[in-house]
Amino acid sequence: MLSEKLLDLAFTRAVKHGSLEMTTAGGRRFTFGDGTEPQVSIRFTDAPAQMALCLHPELKLGELFVEGRLVIENGTILDLLQLLLQDTHGELDELPLHRLRKIRAKMMRRAENNAARSKRNVAHHYDLDGRLYSLFLDSDRQYSCAYFDDPDVSLEGAQMAKKRHIAAKLMVDPGQSILDIGSGWGGMGLYLAQVAGAGSVKGVTLSEEQLEVSRKRSATACLQDRVQFELQDYRLTKGSFDRIVSVGMFEHVGVSSYDAYFQTCRNLLKADGVMLLHTIGRSGTPYPTNPWITKYIFPGGHLPVLSEIMPAIERAGLMVTDIEILRLHYAYTLKAWRERFMAHREEILRLYDERFCRMWECYLAMSESAFRWQDAVVFQLQLAQRNDVVPLTRDYIAERETALKEAEQNMELKRSA
């Protein structure tokens, strides 16, 4: 059977370390690897599933797993991804990945995330039942890469360190005005006001679920006069701000809207202002994001390489004053999310259904594997209009982090008093 030959060829090339046992729909067994860990056994329930995986592996692996047509009888979906990616980094030349990527790349360039489409895309993911996110995120609901300044720090500690690191790079001073583009559940905006001392924070989001939670949190903290959240597309935002921050939102902008995004940011940023963009990206060459992820998890999403971002920044009249690339930080973050998700799987099953649970297990595993064994990274880009608004050296970052940590401790002492 052709599909068996193709899978045999691909898995022989891919699995060098670890052990993979494959049982076909016809009952034939194949083994791959060197017999070490991880040890994974998979079984196809029907022959069309085998050919589907051969023809479009990036899309069909997730679909077949969720549908139960690719059964993992020993190990987990993350273990299987490790076997397939740790040596090949996802490049299985025997399967038609390159041709499919070229076709999808042309389609990606034509697609535009206008305001209406952007809101639909955001609702697809972020307007899910809020109880879901409370079961696997940290207590502040930070749904972006944490910052592990200590490898042994908890998820809560790493997310606090992320907010501290970003606030330090923004160089927030008391009384300054801040725009938070893609403000999530409000944690970053509240931190910038409560800890960093910002005079005013405006957060804009397209998620109605997140907006409701953010406004409640601002009211509970008695900060409605300083921290306000709006259901608003960034392109419709008005005003002039000392600082702009955007965390985990740029992935949803879309390549065709990069010019509009950065031109908008330039128009909103004061001449002596500073912006910090925190976004998932990739360190390789441009190609479309995994099609299973964009179809089922993040419609309209794209993970850019720097060469896709920089021209739009330059055309907008902004300059890059600092770049930091976070590598395995998101792998550690996703590991914590995945473990929490699986620990609460029965509760999530009651919120949704088995298909949803399998889909999200696959999403979290695919995302973690992209940072561990492929080229996914996180970019932190500091932007300005002038070359004299940021200090000459990076010493100020550590100095400001120390001051922010002291402010966090003082806040905690006041709470517990």
TrEMBL record:
One of its GO terms (biological process) is lipid biosynthetic process. The keyword Methyltransferase applies. GO terms for molecular function: methyltransferase activity. Keywords: Lipid metabolism, Methyltransferase, S-adenosyl-L-methionine, Transferase. Pfam families: CMAS. Transmembrane segments: none annotated. It comes from the Bacteria. CDD domains: AdoMet_MTases (cd02440). Belongs to the CFA/CMAS family. This is Class I SAM-dependent methyltransferase. It comes from Microvirga tunisiensis.
